[in-house]
Amino acid sequence: MIYHWCPKTDWEAAGDEYRPATFDADGFVHCSFRHQVERTATDLDRGREGLVLLCIDDRGLPVTVEDCYEAGEEFPHVYGPIPIDSVVAVLPFPPQPDGSFLLPNGVPE
After folding, report:
1. 102: enclosing H helix or E strand
2. What is the spatial distance between Cα 11 and Cα 105, in angstroms, rounded to a whole number?
3. Residue 92 CB-density burial (10 A; 0-12 exposed, 13-18 middle, 19+ buried)
4. In sequence order, what DSSP letters do the residues of 1-69 get, joined into one string?
5. Would you give the distance in Å from CA 17 to the centre of its chain?
6. Rounded-to-integer distance, Cα 11 and Cα 8, Å
7. Is there a domain that residue 103 lies in?
8. Domain assignment of residue 86, yes or no
9. Tens-digit pLDDT profile for the chain (109 aa)?
10. CATH number, domain at 7?
């Protein structure tokens, strides 16, 4: 299981497959492992409202685990759009009062 957060409106606009706005420029969908979600979301999107957390069954997807930015940590990247049927849960992902993020209840492992 891998995870990706995005604006709820972007998810709602997806058809048969999800492509984030950065897909064409980056060539992949940025994702995280479960243990990376809270810290990475807080670092990148502190306080951002209107997000959802996509819980993605990555079996059969073109996933590469890599450190693209030489940050010393590897993340899963999906080198293709994500088929809607690979998303097993879409959960509200609001920031905490201090702007940080916590995994919502019901996140599958």
Report:
1. none
2. 19
3. exposed
4. -EEEEEEHHHHHH--SEE--TTHHHHSSEE-B-HHHHHHHHHHHHTT--SEEEEEE--TTS-EEEE-TT
5. 14
6. 5
7. no
8. yes
9. 999 999 999 999 999 999 999 999 999 999 999 999 999 999 999 999 999 999 999 999 999 999 977 879 999 999 999 999 999 999 999 999 999 999 999 999 8
10. 3.20.170.20
User: Can you tell me which residue has the tokens 């849960």?
Assistant: 89
| 49, part of any domain | yes
Per the document, the length of the chain is 109
Which amino acid makes up residue 19?
A: R
Q: What is the pTM of this model?
A: 0.95
For the chain, report the end-to-end CA distance as a whole number of angstroms. 6
Spatial neighbors of 79 by CB under 8 A, at least 6 apart, are: 27, 28, 62, 63, 64
- Owning domain of residue 7: 2-92
Number of domains into which the chain is organized: 1
Q: Does residue 98 form part of some domain?
A: no
| Rounded Cα–Cα distance for residues 92 and 109 (Å) | 17
